[in-house]
Design brief:
mainly beta; 5-stranded mixed beta sheet; about 325 residues; flat
Amino acid sequence: MNGDATFTGIENGTYKDAVTGDVKTVHDGKLSVSCAGRGNARVYVLGGTFSLGEDGPFLYATSPGQADQSALATDEGTTWVEATPVTHPAVEMSPEGCTFRTETLDIDLKLKDATSGWYRIDNGNKVEINGDMRITIGSDMRFGDTKTIQWQAKGMQDGEEETTNGEATYKKVDPNSMITVYVHTTSTASPKLYAWTTTNGTTTELNGAWPGKVLTNKTRIGTTDWYSFAVEGKEAFNLILNDGNGQTKDILNITQDTYFEYAGGANQHRVSKPSGVQEQPVKAAASKANVLLISLMTEDGMRYMPGCGMAIM
């Protein structure tokens, strides 16, 4: 069988598949079978209790009996042939597309399963790839600029020439760039913010482990106090707001200053930056110990400090 199937006119009862051991009960004259891929074998036996031996190279429930099945092909005149991985000509690039925060970036190029190939930068002139090569980009790029490296590789596949094309894009970003998230909350609980990035399967936490740290920094915009959280040196990051009563969904790909109204739990929505007002850090009240000193110069050259009973020559 190739794919799922439903059989009708089947006598009611309990059937066991002698290949996989699957058991199905038929009560309406229909038996449905789920199969993935092509060339599946199923033998459902009414009241069956047996199986067709152990898993082998050709009949098995989910996977062959062993990785190398050559020992199982014991019939006279039978030879087991392992599948040969299919390869295609390509150009290996390291790194293969990325953002970089340095002045320049070195990129290593080499052919893989190919007899010839070339690369070019932003539709420029084609450069032949010979052996291991290293190119450098970035010196003529400003922050935010991108360059795309296109390539072509040729090689032989099944006796015929095959051509493969590809490309990778690189972006130069400001190493001192900062993205700030502002949160205005009506929740009685102090909000926490969990932030992270994921690169090549590796997660980097930006505000402590889950559930993140309590937001403490405040910025006053107009007459409203907003919590703020700033990330430096990242082009984008993700976050979750939570307050002990629940959490928001994953808020992905924050790439610029962003404002949120947060009512606690899962209740958040983005808002536009308040217009016509400037941001000011919220400062603590001045200490009562602060003293304002005023000095006066007398005609005889004495410096007099009122209220202090002090005269300085």
